[in-house]
Specification:
The protein is α/β, with parallel strands linked by helices. Helix 4 links the parallel strand 3 and strand 4. It has one domain: Alanine racemase (TIM Barrel), CATH 3.20.20. Strands 7-6-5-4-3-2-1-8 form an 8-stranded parallel β-sheet. Helix 3 runs parallel beside helix 4 and helix 6 runs parallel beside helix 8. Bound molecules: pyridoxal-5'-phosphate. Pyridoxal-5'-phosphate (PLP) binds next to strand 8 and helix 10.
Amino acid sequence: MSRTSSSELNPAQRRRAELASNLAEVRGRIAAACAAAGRDAGEVTLIAITKTKPASDVMLLTELGVTDFGENRDDEAAPKAAACTGLPITWHFVGQLQSRKASSVASYADVVHSVDRPRLVRALGAAARAAGRELTCLVQVSLDGDPERGGVAPGGVTQLAQAVAAEPGLRLGGVMAMAPLGLPPADAFAPLSSCSAAVRSVSASAAIVSAGMSGDLEPAISAGATHVRIGTALLGGREPPVR
Ligand SMILES: *Cc1c(COP(=O)(O)O)cnc(C)c1O
């Protein structure tokens, strides 16, 4: 076999090469951030956020060794997860979630990152029990008090964590946060460690800290993130959502 130049690759092969190169770059950033923070790179799980991207990208990334995928809208996530049935994937739901979508999300998601109110806890618990599944739930913390982006205020974390832990069908997994807008990234995630401690005081094994996106994975890892949610840096830019 002669070597093929990239111009000889078909579109699927080109996309695979592009994803492989992006993945190597993201893994390199994670490793460097862990080294700078004195942490082991094995402590950080990469979640590929595949919103607006086709199921074929999910399949290519699984071939490249990615195991964790995230989506933020049920309408898009449900068919994509169905198209990937049988692949060794942990599905994460990371978007704001309406209670009436709970049973759909509970049918394919393994981890819900955006649990921010008691009503949603009850809806997810009922849905998980009906589906005969256990859902890992993260308490989403609002670090900037912006209700548009979801999340409970840091002072409400313990109470919501207790509600999750008490709900049959749900497993308390940890905390999730988005960087507050308009704060230097190095300071943005500072309150996360006390929020994580509050959740671990409810359940010692609830050690997930989901924080960090394409633009701020380094400060998130330095603040203790165990799961980073990476879209753009891995899959390329997205069209703005149609509303
Ligand atoms: C889209 C999204 C991400 C990924 O954002 P990028 O900046 O593209 O890496 C992470 N978390 C949530 C909740 C998202 O909606």
